Amino acid sequence: MSKIHVQKDDLVVVISGKSNYKNAKNYKELKEKNKTGKELYKPAKVLEVSPEEGKVIVEGKNLVTKHVKPKRQGEAGGIVKAEAAMYASKVMHYCEKCEMPVKIGVKIEEDGSKTRVCRKCGTEIGKYGRR
Ligand SMILES: [Zn+2]
Asked: Residue of 26, 86, 101, 115 with fewest CB within 10 Å of its CB?
């Protein structure tokens, strides 16, 4: 079982060391900062989760430059940007209702299944253990 709190296709926000998320008092303030803060809090999709490494790959985040050789004739080689894996602790779930990064809680349904919810507003984030 994965110890990583995010799953593939989850919407997340990258919380970097430079991030001022913790200093924001509310989401209004956060959105204000969002306008100027290099799109730090723009939500992005999780492309891959690696439980062995404790890392995730997030769409458009942590881009690295790779030099690629053309694989086939007529194909252009050169420099491409690709997402590199980052530690899962660097990302937080994004709640579309709260419009900010949130912590998630687990709600246990009557049938015993688990649902992941936003701890702030209670909106369902996705089934627990969904694949
Ligand atoms: Zn919420």
From this structure: 26
Predicted confidence (pLDDT) at residue 31 exceeds the cutoff of 90: no
Summarize the confidence of residues 28-56 as an average pLDDT.
77
Instruction: Output the CA 68–ligand 1 centroid distance in Å.
Output: 41
Structural domain spans, the chain: 11-101
Residue 62 alpha carbon to ligand 1 centre in Å: 25
What pLDDT, on the 0 to 100 scale, is given for residue 36?
57
CA 130 to centroid of ligand 1, rounded, Å: 19
Strands (E), 9-122: 11-14, 44-50, 55-58, 63-68, 78-83, 86-87, 91-95, 100-102, 104-108, 114-118
Q: Select the CATH number that applies to the domain covering 11-101 from these four: 1.10.10, 3.30.450, 3.40.50, 2.30.30.
A: 2.30.30
